[in-house]
C-alpha cells in the first residue's frame, strides 16, 4: 500500500506531539515534514509539496489561512483549531475537513479517511465536521501533558480541577499543576457534566475530589477540595450544585 505524504504546521509543542504521533501511527500516511510557524510552513510546504497538510490556523508570523492562500499548488488540507469561527474561510479555501481541538483519535481517523477518499465536496465535509462537533462532542478519556521535559497521558479521572490562565488552562492532578494550551471552554465541551462542573468563568471542578461545600455570607458556595484548595462558586453554579444534592 502506497502511503500518502503528509505535513503538519502547529505552533504549540504539545499539539505538535499529538499530531506527529497520530500521523506516524496511521498506515495510510507518511510524515515528511513539520513547521512551528506560518512562514516556515509556507517555505517547507513549497519545497516538499506534500499531498496532505494538517494546518493550524493561528500561528506566529503568518496564519494557516494566509499560508494556504500563498501556496502555488493546492494540497488536501485539514485545518486544526480550537475555534470554529474560521469555518466559512475554510470552505472558501477548499479544506477537506476541520478538526476542532482537542480532538479524539477516532475523529482524527475520520478526517484521514476523508483525505484519502480523493476529491470531495469541501463545503459538505467541513459543515458535517462542525455539525458533528456541535451535536455530539466526544468525551475525552485522557490528555497529554508535559512535566520536566517528558510527555505522558493523564487520565481525565485524575484531574481534580482546572483553572483558566490567559490562553492556557492549569490542570491540578496528582498533587501537581500542568499547563496546557487548550481553552477551558474547549475542554469543558468534552467532559462529563455529571462529574465536572463549571463553578465560575475560569474554573472547573471534578466532584470526585470535592471534600465539602459551604455557603458564604452571600449564600454562594465555597468549594473545599481534598488537597486543601478552596474555590468560590458563582451564584448560578451554586444553584446548580444545590439542585444536584439529594
TrEMBL record:
Q: What GO molecular function terms would the record report?
A: DNA binding
Please state every residue range assigned to the domain named HTH LytTR-type.
143-246
- Identify one Pfam family in the record: LytTR
Q: Is Phosphoprotein one of the keywords?
A: yes
Modified positions (4-aspartylphosphate) in chain numbering: 56
The cross-references to InterPro entries, in alphabetical order and at most eight, read: CheY-like_superfamily, LytR-like, LytTR_DNA-bd_dom, Sig_transdc_resp-reg_receiver
- Look up the domain of life of the source: Bacteria
Q: What is this protein called?
A: LytTR family DNA-binding domain-containing protein
Its source organism is Massilia phyllostachyos
What taxonomic ancestry is recorded?
Answer: Bacteria, Pseudomonadati, Pseudomonadota, Betaproteobacteria, Burkholderiales
Amino acid at each position: 500500500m502506497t502511503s500518502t505524504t503528509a505535513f503538519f504546521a502547529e505552533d504549540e509543542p504539545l499539539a505538535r506531539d499529538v499530531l506527529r504521533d497520530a500521523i506516524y501511527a496511521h498506515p495510510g500516511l507518511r510524515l515528511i515534514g513539520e513547521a512551528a510557524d506560518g512562514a516556515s510552513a509556507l517555505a517547507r510546504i513549497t519545497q516538499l509539496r506534500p499531498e496532505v497538510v494538517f494546518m493550524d490556523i493561528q500561528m506566529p508570523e503568518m496564519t494557516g489561512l494566509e499560508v494556504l492562500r500563498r501556496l502555488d499548488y493546492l494540497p488536501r488540507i485539514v485545518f486544526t483549531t480550537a475555534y470554529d469561527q474560521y469555518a466559512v474561510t475554510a470552505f472558501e479555501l477548499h479544506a477537506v475537513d476541520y478538526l476542532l481541538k482537542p480532538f479524539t483519535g477516532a475523529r482524527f481517523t475520520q478526517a484521514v479517511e476523508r483525505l484519502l477518499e480523493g476529491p470531495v465536496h469541501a463545503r459538505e465535509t467541513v459543515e458535517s465536521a462542525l455539525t458533528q462537533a456541535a451535536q455530539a462532542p466526544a468525551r475525552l478519556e485522557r490528555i497529554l501533558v508535559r512535566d520536566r521535559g517528558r510527555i505522558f497521558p493523564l487520565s481525565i479521572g485524575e484531574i481534580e480541577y482546572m483553572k483558566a490562565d490567559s490562553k492556557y488552562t492549569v490542570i491540578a492532578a496528582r498533587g501537581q499543576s500542568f499547563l496546557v494550551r487548550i481553552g477551558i471552554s474547549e475542554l469543558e465541551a468534552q467532559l462529563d457534566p455529571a462529574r465536572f462542573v463549571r463553578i465560575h468563568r475560569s474554573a472547573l471542578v471534578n466532584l470526585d475530589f470535592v471534600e465539602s461545600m459551604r455557603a458564604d455570607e452571600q449564600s454562594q458556595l465555597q468549594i473545599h477540595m481534598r488537597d486543601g484548595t478552596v474555590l468560590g462558586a458563582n451564584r448560578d453554579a451554586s444553584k446548580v450544585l444545590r439542585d444536584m444534592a439529594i
